[in-house]
Fold this sequence. Notes:
Largest sheet: 3 strands, antiparallel
Amino acid sequence: MDERLLTIDELAEYLQVSAKTIYRMIHRKQIPCYKVANQWRFKWSVIQAWMENQNFRAPEESDKPGRSDT
């Protein structure tokens, strides 16, 4: 299980939405998140499970944020 934590910007890029949309989802309690100090974080494995529950199609393994094939 991948325990990587994503930032708002990384998650926004992954979901192809704006950071403002992510903040809105946090405020509405529509997305699982954690607050570390004063910053929001998203556990990769929890986001994957949430996406499956929301019937989203996850990008391919090589599309994961912070991952590179180079």
